[in-house]
Amino acid sequence: MSNRTDRRLHLNAFLMEAGHHEAAWRLPQSNPNADFELAHWIKLATLAESAKFDSLFLADGPVTQGTGEFRSPGQLEPLTLLTALAAVTEHIGLIATVSTTYNDPYNLARRLASVDHVSGGRVGWNIVTSATEAEAANFGLDERPLHADRYERADEFLDVVLKLWDSWGDAAYVGDKASGRWGDPSQIRPIDHQGKHFQVAGPLNVPRSPQAYPLLVQAGASDAGRAFAARYAEAIFTASQTLEHAQEFYGDLKKRAVAAGRDADQVIVLPGIVPIIGSTEAEAKALAAELDDLRIPEYGLLALGKVLEVEPKELPLDEQLPQHVIDRPTAREGFKSRSELIIEMATSERLTVRQVLSRLGGGRGHNVVAGTPEQIVDILVTWFEQGAADGFNVMGAALPSGLEAFIEQVLPELRARGLFREEYDGSTLRDHYGLPRPQNLFDATAARNRRSA
Ligand SMILES: Cc1cc2nc3c(=O)[nH]c(=O)nc-3n(C[C@H](O)[C@H](O)[C@H](O)COP(=O)(O)O)c2cc1C
């Protein structure tokens, strides 16, 4: 853990259609079709930027979510949407989720590098391995690859994209009209990758960006996910219900990063929080209850069944989780860490399925806190100071109102305590997260070879 006293919080606005609460779209002020309307996203992005958030983030999966009866089942492709948002913002980081299981490294390295250029070096990539059978069925597979195999592919995927992004040296572009030399071909090099999953010649056809290449973000918390994060991730999204759980995750990730030869301060851990804010605790609880009352249990059952990989009819509403569901091994091949978190919460607190659905409705397992601005600040500061977080994924239960309330009522107190920036002091996403621009692997190797020659 860091001993620095000048630490400041990093805040990422995790955006989701009309809000993270599954019934947010039903509030009187909400737009039920927000997912597909650019004006909604521009409003959220400019709002988060005006408040100087480090970044905004879009989750994703190449599949419909649910049947469409009780909530929007689709969403725009995040890199496409972020390209539009890059044009209407100047500073805020833009993080998109993209799967390593259902993409090819060359195409994805190129798309990510292109958006990183278009945005002036503000892009982040939330690297996921795609947990569901339904995703596999969209890509010609009879069943999804095993958890361990997905992470093995992700590992080689990262090896390839990092080499592609570094296939251009920073001095590749010359632009000398007098001599007619556009570039220096010795700086644009093949990668000749021959691996188990990929054979890629390279070089990439896009140069390094102002921040070199997109910030690497990761969001899986299983053992394999943590090992992967420790090797590659510069920022880590995570879900924790309690301070103790978050401290365990934070301490373990920092330890693993150091064991992998990295600086613990350069791995930014961001747990999610869904703040439901009222001027009194009673007002906050009333807002939470209003949202809870709008939930449709049938939707919650479908969503819970998906994460635990059981049929909704196997989840009796007024009983605790059945033992066969708790013991079921297949869920561990899918949403491994999230299914474990839900089972732990349900069994340790002896919750009925109905109570579990109520707890998950606000943020799918993220920490939902209904309280006054002071109570929210206390939690953020406690987690930040007690080794559980370097910042937070701020998840508005309803959007934009949840983000507006956080900006107007919580940020001023964090700023008064010197815990959050007043202005951006850099231009790239890595600048905002206080991370260095990565050295070019090829240039570093060449320099080493020159020294030893
Ligand atoms: C904040 C957060 C956001 C996530 N976003 C996505 C996402 O957009 N798409 C996805 O497939 N998985 C997402 N995940 C889930 C994990 O990345 C992962 O797919 C799943 O938990 C399985 O990996 P694990 O077993 O290592 O935890 C997210 C997790 C967290 C904590």
Short description:
The chain is built from 16 helices and 13 strands.
Topology:
Layout: E1 10-15, H1 38-50, E2 55-58, H2 78-88, E3 93-99, H3 105-118, E4 123-128, H4 133-137, H5 147-165, E5 173-176, E6 181-183, E7 193-194, E8 199-200, E9 215-218, H6 223-232, E10 235-238, H7 243-259, E11 268-277, H8 281-293, H9 297-308, H10 323-327, H11 336-348, H12 353-361, E12 367-371, H13 373-385, E13 391-394, H14 401-416, H15 429-432, H16 441-452
Helix pairs in contact: 1-2, 2-3, 3-5, 5-6, 6-7, 9-12, 13-14
The structure holds flavin mononucleotide.
Please bin the fraction of helical residues. 40-55%
Rg from alpha-carbon coordinates:
22 Å
Order of helices and strands: EHEHEHEHHEEEEEHEHEHHHHHEHEHHH
Q: Tally of extended strands?
A: 13
Q: What is the spatial order of strands in the main beta sheet?
A: 1-2-3-4-9-10-11-13
